[in-house]
Specification:
CATH class: Alpha Beta
Distance between the termini: 40 Å
Largest sheet: 7 strands, mixed
Number of domains: 1
CATH superfamily: Glutaredoxin
CATH topology: Glutaredoxin
CATH architecture: 3-Layer(aba) Sandwich
Strand order of the largest sheet: 2-1-5-4-3-7-8
Order of helices and strands: HEEEHHEHEHEEEHE
Helix content: 25-40%
Structural class: alpha+beta
């Protein structure tokens, strides 16, 4: 009897844990998971404070060739930040893993890559990455001014490291932003992300 009760308690606990995890899964059309992270100068950015703005979350690792494909082309960031979009690059690489940089090196690396996001946020613990279930660099999320997740997935439909492929690719992030900002329906709201795996702990 005791073993049966113990087993039931364990199964109940596992079910509750799984239910909580599923409930936390970011779903297109629902509220995007909240978070607060600091940038390279210690300024905190909170998703709750960005209500009223379109927000792009981009999981980044400057040493990943799939990320470099888009940075080498100057793809998208400046175009949309100039339109008032808040573009947050998030690095969830753990200390000692690819893509993790010491603060003393990070500003120089951002400048070298000619990266122009609104902010480069540090998620060394991986907590925010796991909350969003970010799997690759890049992995993209578009959030509307009401805090609702509009798009989740890859930047485009060409899962290569070749910059020349960008011109002929269907850019899902651009399409989602352009449609949403024009008050139109987003045709593709989710896709399979591609790139290097996020280097969690």
């Amino acid at each position: 009897m005791g073993r049966t009760v113990h087993g039931f308690v364990m199964l109940t606990g596992l079910f509750m844990l799984l239910s909580a995890r599923l409930a936390a899964t970011p779903r297109v059309g629902e509220a995007a998971p909240t978070f607060a992270l600091k940038d390279v100068v210690g300024k905190e950015y909170s998703l709750a404070d960005l209500k009223g703005k379109f927000v792009v979350l981009e999981w980044v690792n400057f040493d990943c060739p799939f990320v470099r494909k888009h940075y080498n082309s100057g793809n998208m960031q400046k175009q949309y930040t100039e339109k008032g979009v808040t573009w947050l690059s998030i690095c969830s690489s753990a200390e000692g893993k690819q893509g993790h940089f010491e603060m003393s090196d990070l500003k120089a690396r951002i400048a070298k890559e000619k990266a122009v996001p609104t902010a480069y946020l540090i998620d060394e613990s991986g907590d925010v990455g796991m909350k969003y279930e970010a799997k690759t660099t890049p992995h993209m999320f578009v959030i509307n001014p009401d805090g609702v997740l509009l798009y989740a997935g890859g930047i485009d439909d060409k899962a290569t490291t070749d910059t020349d492929d960008i011109a002929s690719a269907t850019n899902y992030v651009r399409a989602a932003l352009d449609a949403a900002m024009a008050g139109q329906e987003i045709k593709v709201s989710a896709s399979k992300p591609y790139g290097c795996s996020v280097k969690y702990k």
